[in-house]
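Renewal narrative, Specific Aim 1. Our central claim is that a sequence can be written position by position from structural information alone. The example that follows is taken directly from our test logs and has not been curated for this report. It begins with the structure tokens describing the chain, in the order in which they were read.
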């Protein structure tokens, strides 16, 4: 299945079902998507090979692993040069406290999503790691008070 081919409704059903439960058996997936087990297995294989399915993972409860505080931070760099961008991006990739890091257009350069034990842990990360990255001029931190919606499922 090439990346430029359109997904049909059966492919979309498979993707929706796998997003909801990545551990579903092939037999159950085939039944839910109205396919034979062999056709189901072949379609999933093609979706993986075509890059539509990029992997499988377990979702861990952040509270149970002492990462219950969700933080977003805007980062403004002092210069917008390729070297500064790459230095910052490399540092973000190395940091286990950074769950997501996105270069954005607008009033700041990067948006970071982080989960930490508490605000003291965030302050330590901010002081010891984030503001010490060469090129970081300013940060604005937003602690999340309530997660209204959080999902990993894309509408397909």
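The sequence written for that structure reads:
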């Amino acid at each position: 299945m090439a990346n430029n081919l359109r997904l049909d409704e059966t492919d979309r059903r498979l993707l929706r079902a796998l997003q909801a439960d990545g551990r579903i058996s092939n037999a159950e997936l085939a039944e839910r998507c109205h396919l034979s087990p062999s056709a189901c297995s072949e379609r999933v294989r093609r979706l993986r090979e075509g890059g539509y399915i990029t992997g499988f993972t377990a979702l861990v409860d952040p509270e149970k692993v002492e990462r219950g505080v969700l933080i977003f931070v805007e980062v403004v760099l002092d210069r917008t040069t390729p070297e500064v961008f790459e230095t910052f991006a490399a540092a973000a990739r190395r940091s286990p406290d950074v769950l997501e890091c996105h270069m954005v257009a607008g009033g700041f350069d990067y948006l970071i999503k982080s989960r930490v034990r508490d605000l003291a842990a965030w302050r330590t990360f901010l002081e010891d790691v984030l503001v010490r990255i060469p090129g970081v001029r300013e940060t604005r931190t937003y602690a999340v008070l309530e997660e209204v919606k959080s999902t990993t499922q894309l509408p397909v």
